[in-house]
Design brief:
Length: 221
């Protein structure tokens, strides 16, 4: 899709992004602002130092709100104030002990705000390709394959998908708001400063003249 096509669709539309200070959220924020959207971001502070969000100066181009999606009252106020038309949900917690409440109940809170906000016409929940039941197949998984993430984090994202499906069936069958999910896998690109990611780790090791450490030699990549 060209920038002209993006401008035609997103120009002057009110968009709310959760997790806008993260790697993927920062790139999405940049694309939407270049497309002429009026963007509000709701997220914790940038998760890395340095961070793409700060390096790109994105805070100066949008309304950036520091908040936790587990805080339904605060999140609801932001929805009421901004009245978004499109909501992208990218906020997630990779730490196992904290992932259950954030990834499951956080998604419930975001969808509850979408349900209460009549202006929202489209909601997209960005999860992960790890939501699928791991069958150790040689081919890629399909959207119709069973969800059942094996490890706690992946399963919390599977639950996030189930919550989204439940809200779609319960509250949005009338077509008032389009409800979708997207399953991202091994996303790479400039500005990824996260630890324990293959490409960033390799770049950091090469820049420092150190040996690249393979954390799990038994994984097939």
């Amino acid at each position: 899709m060209t920038i002209e096509e993006l401008k035609e669709f997103y120009g002057n539309k009110k968009v709310l992004i959760t997790g806008h200070t993260g790697f993927k959220g920062s790139w999405l924020t940049r694309i939407l602002t270049l497309s002429g959207a009026e963007v509000t971001g709701y997220s914790l502070t940038p998760p890395t130092d340095p961070s793409l969000f700060e390096i790109a100066g994105l805070e100066d181009t949008i309304k950036s709100v520091v908040g936790d999606i587990r805080d339904l009252e605060h999140l609801s106020r932001v929805f009421e104030e901004t009245r978004p038309e499109i909501v992208f949900h990218l906020a997630a917690q990779p730490i196992v002990r904290e992932s259950y409440e954030t990834n499951v109940m956080g998604t419930v809170n975001v969808l509850e705000c979408v349900r209460r906000t009549e202006s929202v016409r489209s909601f997209l929940n960005v999860t992960t390709d790890k939501v699928y039941e791991n069958r150790e197949w040689e081919y890629g998984y399909r959207e119709c394959d069973n969800l059942d993430g094996y490890d706690p984090y992946s399963n919390s994202k599977s639950c996030s998908e189930l919550v989204t499906h439940s809200y779609k069936k319960s509250f949005f069958e009338d077509g008032r708001c389009a409800i979708s999910t997207a399953r991202a896998g091994n996303v790479i690109g400039g500005g990824d400063f996260a630890a324990d990611r293959i490409i960033p780790d390799c770049v950091r090791a090469a820049a420092a003249g150190k040996t690249i450490i393979v954390r799990n030699p038994y994984s097939t990549r």
